[in-house]
Amino acid sequence: MKAIAVHAIFVVSIILIFLFFVTAIFFRYMDFKEGPSEFSCKVKQFSYCSDWKRTDYSDYPDWSWEEKEPENCDLVGIAKPTYEQCENILL
Predict the structure, then answer these.
(1) pTM above 0.70, yes or no
(2) How far is Cα 87 from Cα 76, in angstroms, rounded to an integer?
(3) Which of these, 35, 29, 49, lies nearest to 89 by C-alpha position?
């Protein structure tokens, strides 16, 4: 009976250590900073280019870059795309 208890304690401790490291890695790579995330701003940029391309770049999309969420994408280095940037994004 002692061998089963020692083995169970060992397995449980290994699992807990593994979960600790997984949680630490998860929170290390999660970006909990203030402001918009780079991913959400890239999605916004892609949506803007897709909507703009539907009009063959003759009319801007129905929505304004500044009005659509997330706002302040310039904080992460993403601005309203130009024609050339949209062509590269939509490749």
Answers:
(1) no
(2) 21
(3) 49
Which of helix, strand or coil describes residue 77? coil
pLDDT in tens, 23-73: 888 777 665 667 788 899 999 999 999 999 999 988 888 888 888 888 889
Q: What ranges in 1-91 are assigned the alpha helix state H?
A: 2-29, 38-54, 83-89
CA gap 45, 91 in Å, rounded: 14
Whether the ω angle into residue 81 lies within 30 degrees of 0, i.e. cis, is: no
What's the pLDDT at 31?
A: 57
CA distance 43 to 22: 28
Distance CA 27, CA 42 (A): 22
List the chain domain ranges.
Answer: 1-30, 38-89
Q: Is the pLDDT of residue 1 over 60?
A: no
